[in-house]
């Protein structure tokens, strides 16, 4: 008796979906909302100029395009902050890997450093760019007896 078997790949199993399908998360989740600015302390009129980006999760098991973006942004090492401009091209990359990173604004408590002060700056773990000012010796006046 000859058995008539269907080929194994004639139809995918009912319970499994393809690996990379269209996202099932609605697009409205990814759009900015006005209440986000109050919650996270941002100002839509005066956005910050520089992002402080830190990778907080591993890329093991993530798709190749996420690994490439992490490499392009210089976030190969976890918990090593990197500075990036707040521009649309960078923001689009950050949006793709936002579940792997933490993005904070760069705080400048002493204002923008000048060229001479750049060597004396320090980036703290809180995201502040602190200028370590060097003390200049005061001119000593001659003491007359």
UniProtKB/TrEMBL annotation:
GO biological process annotation, one example: translation
Comp. bias intervals (Basic and acidic residues): 33-47
Subcellular localization, as worded in the UniProt entry: Mitochondrion
Domain Large ribosomal subunit protein uL30-like ferredoxin-like fold, first and last residues per copy: 52-101
Pfam family, one: Ribosomal_L30
Keyword terms of this UniProt record: Mitochondrion, Ribonucleoprotein, Ribosomal protein, Transit peptide
Principal location: mitochondrion
Segments for region (Disordered): 25-47
InterPro entries for the chain: Ribo_uL30_ferredoxin-like_sf, Ribosomal_uL30_bac-type, Ribosomal_uL30_ferredoxin-like
Superkingdom as given in the UniProt entry: Eukaryota
Gene Ontology molecular function, alphabetical: structural constituent of ribosome
Gene3D superfamilies associated with the record: Ribosomal protein L30, ferredoxin-like fold domain
Ranges annotated as spanning the membrane: none
GO cellular component: large ribosomal subunit; mitochondrial inner membrane
The keyword Manganese is annotated on this UniProt entry: no
Family: Belongs to the universal ribosomal protein uL30 family.
Protein name per Swiss-Prot or TrEMBL: Large ribosomal subunit protein uL30m
Organism of derivation: Nothoprocta perdicaria (Chilean tinamou)
């Amino acid at each position: 008796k000859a058995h008539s078997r269907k080929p194994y790949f004639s139809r995918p199993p009912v319970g499994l979906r393809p690996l990379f399908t269209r996202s099932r998360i609605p697009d409205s989740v990814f759009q900015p909302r006005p209440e986000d600015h109050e919650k996270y302390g941002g100002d839509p009129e005066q956005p910050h100029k520089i992002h402080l980006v830190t990778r907080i999760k591993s890329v093991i098991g993530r798709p190749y395009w996420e690994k490439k973006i992490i490499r392009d942004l210089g976030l190969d090492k976890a918990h090593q902050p990197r500075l990036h401009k707040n521009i649309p091209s960078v923001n689009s990359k950050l949006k793709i890997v936002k579940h792997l990173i933490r993005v904070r604004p760069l705080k400048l408590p002493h204002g923008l450093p000048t060229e001479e002060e750049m060597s004396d700056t320090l980036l703290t773990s809180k995201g502040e760019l602190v200028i370590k000012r060097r003390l200049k010796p005061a001119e000593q006046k001659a003491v007359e007896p």
